[in-house]
User: What shape does this take?
Amino acid sequence: MKMTLAAIGLLAGAACPALGVTLVACPAGTAAKGCTYKGDGAIQDAIDRAADGDTIFVRAGVYTPRAYRDLPYKEIIVRAFVAVDGKRLTIQGEKGAVLDGSAGLPTTAIGLKNADVTISGLAITGFRFDIEEDDIYEGHGIFAVDSRARISGVTISRYQKMGLTGRGDTILDVRDLQIRDGHVATWLYEGAYLRLDGAIFRNNDSSAVAAFNDSVAHLAHIAVDRSADDGLYTADDAAIFVSDSLIVGSKPIALNATGKSRIVGRNLALHGNATDTSETGVTLQGVIAGDPRVDAEYRPLADSPIAGKGIGPAPAR
Assistant: This one.
């Protein structure tokens, strides 16, 4: 596996970008004061002006893609509404800040290339493609290439391709995430690494996490509900380590490891899946079967068999 202890240490070591100035992006027509830029292109304008260590503060309101920035990578082009290329920044959304791709140009919401970025507090919805199968990558939520990203408090919904993507030597450190009502929720490729603590994946028409090549994911306190093409999926030499989580209502297989890949699970609740595991490649310890008896946010009810066992999405910190 490509991920080493040294690489995992980089996550902690890069967790606090240097402090810089704050640039404020505001939606068109806002009455808010102190806006550095206004309009649908305000976030990108702020990023273009920002220096390493700066913060982009995104005021509440809706931002629609009226322009895009292309990020070439190998055989593809990530067509991004918001693009960060080669910078170290923080993008902090105020409650109610929404990137909405349902109108305007077909794009990917946020593209990262050779970047080191902290993203928090954004709602990303409705991003769509122009042509389904070509080398122009639109319709994604956050697409990171050869980058480090710390992501928290983000919701991605109604996207047509992938919600969260890591390619190349990307490191994703994620918590308090929701991805719902889309296609592949999380896609890891090449040597990407994901550490995820606290997430809800609901009603996606493909996997909650799909890992390929030498990619690795460490998942804890997640809920996977009604994935229509495997809950967790690995291929090639990829690996997923998942703990303290529940996977319900998924098909055809809740935990599916193919090729030489593997999935290792501990302290899991599995219920209502068409099939719980593939015949090979999956190792489990401490599985609780039967109805987990949880509320709409996957918190155990008083009579739940998982009450007190630490299973399910962790509360926001």
